[in-house]
Amino acid sequence: MLASRSTSIANSARLALLKTSDLESLFEELLESHKTLRSRVGMREVREKGVAMRAAANAAPAPGASKAELRDYYLKGKTPAEVAAIHRSGVNTNV
Fold first, then answer.
1. Are 75 and 83 in contact (CB under 8 A)?
2. To bridge 69 with a disulfide, which of 2, 30, 57, 65 should be the other Cys (CB 3.0-4.6 Å)?
């Protein structure tokens, strides 16, 4: 009777160890999957933030903006010669 009881305890311990090992394996897979998905979400957030920042940078100045802000927005680094050429060609820059 003692031998069968120790065998039963040993079998129970072995089953518990197998179940624990399976759970650890599943948990590691879940962590890896979560890491991959979080990385994808993070990159999506970075792309969306970049798009929003570019849109904000290209947005026209608010009504009542100073002449300097308007000049910076509409001339965007053009040289005086380029501005004069655009003006002479008759291109409407107020669009």
1. yes
2. 65
